Amino acid sequence: SMDGAPPPASPAGLSAFVAVSQLLGLTLLATTGAWLGRYRGGVAWHSPLQFNAHPLCMVLGMVFLQGDALLVYRVFRHEAKRSTKALHALLHGLALVIALVGIIAVFESHRAKGIPDMYSLHSWCGMAAFVLYLLQWLLGCGFFLFPGASFSLRGRYKPQHIFFGVAIFILSIASCLLGITEMLLFKISDSYSHFVPEGVLANTLGVMLVAFGLVVGYVVTREEWKRPPLAEELALSMDFKTLTEGESPGGGS
User: Fold this and answer.
1) What's the CA gap between 247 and 183, in Å, rounded?
2) Which of 88, 173, 177, 179 shows the shortest CA–CA distance to 136?
3) A GO molecular-function term, please (predicted)?
4) Backbone angles phi, psi at 189, to 5 degrees
5) From the CB of residue 195, how many other CB atoms can be counted at a distance below 10 Å?
């Protein structure tokens, strides 16, 4: 396009799906807060309520922020690639820090109450999601954000990075669903089967987690909504490939 020309419009439907994802994500956070505030006494550090920081941090970090980080390349379609990469890495990094706070909360709470750690399916899946997420972030920064990785090495790693990005997001949501069920069975096992308000609210939160995951997954995997490379990026990538691989810019990629 000519310099000074307005950027092309987003593909039809993309903006609507992104808006729905954000509405769902914010509703998720509000619902989690309402559940913990209305039925579980709220959140406070270094108190019997410390555990409640765990579900709040995991929904905020491992679901909402992770999902938004996945959407960065679809939303910021016409900004410089390096800025988009930096935002993608920053959101994932922030999600990791918040999730770490949530993990510390549950371990400290268990220790204070004499509850054993890491015995449930929820804890296994949740810890696996966090460890994989941390590794994914470190590898992503190493390959794509910092200079040094060759063009061909980046090209070979990129499909794995994309696959594991979506897979870890799915595992994170599955871990949240297991956690919600576990918490309900611990706290209201006697009344859960009677459709009490807390159970209905928590089940609704679970359904919204699935909906958020589906919407984000749809946006991220729809081929025609992928971020198109800018003209200068294509030129730069060819120059970079020539320098690092010794290939002619006219060669096949």
Assistant:
1) 57
2) 88
3) oxidoreductase activity
4) -60, -35
5) 9
pLDDT tens for the chain, 253 residues long, are 445 556 667 788 999 999 999 999 999 999 999 999 999 999 999 999 999 999 999 999 999 999 999 999 999 998 999 999 999 999 999 999 999 999 999 999 999 999 999 999 999 999 999 999 999 999 999 999 887 778 888 999 999 999 999 999 999 999 999 999 999 999 999 999 999 999 999 999 999 999 999 999 999 999 999 998 877 666 655 655 555 455 444 444 3
The domain 14-230 is placed in CATH, from the list 3.30.230.10, 3.40.50.2000, 1.20.120.1770, 3.20.20.30, at: 1.20.120.1770
Q: How far apart are CA 186 and CA 206, in angstroms?
A: 17
What is the model's pTM?
0.89
**Domain spans in the chain, listed from the N-terminal domain onward:** 14-230
Cα–Cα distance for residue pair 130/134, rounded to 1 Å: 6
